[in-house]
């Protein structure tokens, strides 16, 4: 019965491309033309931070490290992964989800997160944690795009989402207003964990829409590690290269 209803709905309300609006034969999210414009991050990339390489020096190595990660610089992350390079194409999809109430985009973006997180799933993940919004901004926006992504990703992976343990207790200005070190200062000490027992000993995957400098994700990871998280990985739809 449910399958019949879905078929009828597709006749009167066919799936459309979430970017250009073209009618689709299947619920794939994007039409072939729009999909081919996307710049996915694929191997080779740094196994730790996920930054793509322009060329491979040693093709035999399956876990290549970039210069920074090979120096074993201190970081709160185990692995960083992103599905796309942040450019005009991915930007439109993310901003539509974030600010234009295109919450249906989360389903498609989560599929790409699932694929991008392959290395994380192989290393082991216990819980998904979306980067939280301060309650004032959440009231104004009405939803947290990172929580929507985590919800859809949970359906694909079977990994539970913890929406409440990590909180943003400090109201900050939007990161887009800052650059470089000012971004670090803006979010410093803005996050904390109020239910450490739910985090302690867990391999946590932080979910967000975009990694720019990583300042917000680092502050979240520090709070999670302080609460006893075994490891913290990050998984974002896109990252600035």
Can you summarize the main beta sheet? 4 strands, parallel
Q: Percent helix among the residues?
A: 25-40%
- Terminus-to-terminus distance: 47 Å
**Order of H and E elements:** HHHEHHHEHHEHEHEHE
Overall mean pLDDT = 91
Silhouette: globular
Radius of gyration using CA atoms only: 18 Å
Number of helices: 11
Structural class: alpha/beta
How is the CATH topology of the domain at 78-239 named? Rossmann fold
CATH class of the domain at 78-239: Alpha Beta
Give the percentage of residues in beta strands: 5-15%
What are the segments in which pLDDT stays under 50 over at least 5 consecutive residues?
Answer: none
Count of beta strands = 6
Q: In CATH terms, what is the architecture of the domain at 78-239? A: 3-Layer(aba) Sandwich
For the largest beta sheet, what order do the strands appear in spatially?
1-6-5-2
Tell me what the structure shows:
With 241 residues, this protein is an alpha/beta fold. The chain has a domain of 162 residues: Rossmann fold (3-Layer(aba) Sandwich). Helix content is 38%, strand content 14%. It contains 11 helices and 6 strands. The strands form 2 sheets. The protein has a 4-stranded parallel beta sheet with strand order 1-6-5-2, with helices on both faces. α5 packs across α8. The longest helix is centred in the middle third of the chain and has 13 residues. It is globular.
């Amino acid at each position: 019965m449910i399958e019949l209803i879905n078929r009828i709905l597709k006749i009167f309300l066919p799936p459309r491309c979430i970017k250009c609006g073209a009618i689709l034969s299947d619920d794939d999210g994007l039409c072939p033309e729009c999909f081919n414009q996307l710049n996915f991050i694929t191997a080779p990339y740094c196994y730790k931070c996920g930054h793509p390489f322009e060329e491979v020096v040693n093709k035999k190595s399956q876990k290549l490290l970039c210069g920074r990660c090979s120096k074993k610089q201190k970081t709160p992350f185990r692995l960083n992964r992103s599905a796309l390079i942040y450019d005009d194409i991915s930007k439109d999809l993310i901003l539509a989800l974030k600010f234009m109430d295109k919450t249906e985009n989360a389903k498609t973006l989560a599929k790409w997160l699932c694929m991008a997180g392959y290395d994380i799933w192989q290393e082991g993940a216990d819980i998904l944690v979306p980067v939280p919004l301060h309650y004032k901004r959440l009231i104004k926006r009405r939803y947290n795009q990172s929580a929507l992504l985590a919800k859809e990703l949970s359906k694909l992976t079977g990994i539970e989402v913890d929406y409440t343990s990590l909180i943003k207790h400090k109201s900050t200005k939007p990161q887009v207003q800052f650059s470089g070190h000012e971004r670090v200062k803006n979010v410093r000490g803005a996050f904390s964990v109020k239910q450490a027992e739910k985090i302690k000993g867990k391999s946590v995957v932080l979910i967000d829409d975009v990694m720019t400098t990583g300042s917000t994700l680092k502050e979240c990871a520090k709070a999670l590690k302080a609460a006893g998280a075994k490891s913290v990985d990050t998984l974002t739809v896109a990252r600035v290269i």
